[in-house]
Amino acid sequence: MILPVVAYGHPVLRQETEEIEEVTPEIKQLIADMKETMYNANGVGLAAPQIGKALRLFVIDASPASEDDEDEEEELTPEEKEENEFLKTFQRVFINPIIEDEKGDEWGFHEGCLSIPGIREEVFRQEEVFITYYDENFEYKEERLTGFAARVVQHEYDHIEGVLFTDHLNSFKKRLLKRKMTDISKGIVPVKYKMTFYKK
User: Is-above-0.85 flag for pTM?
Assistant: First the structure.
């Protein structure tokens, strides 16, 4: 089932999230609904707070990012080709994740967010993460990720920590975006997928 994406301004996006104790039929259905919602909105990741659930859960499918480079395949370095191949299969469910370590140089990329439609800004993040988590079968996993895969994980992990990508921007950029962000919170934004807005 496609769920409405929670818009910027809703308190659930800042709420403390709870750990999942077991994968019940309800959690399995929630995961399936989150994936369907993410695909419907053309996203590469979606966290539970973004559909109104304060749970430590997010889903990722970064394969669309690999398709962006297919036309430029001839110009890619061996390392870039390797990353491209990895992204084609980077589909994960992260339950109760913990980023244990982040390292490497910070690099910039224009990020967007389904909860903040119409805004893309350059965010700097470290290039490598080591994360522990449970998958959809509640099996324990450890994974070291780099590049775009690491960035998507960092972005979605922020969500379950109550952090938005715009929080990483400097104060000047935040002031420039304030009007747009206020409009989004009021539902004054063109969007092609279902959203829900906070009514005070």
Answer: yes
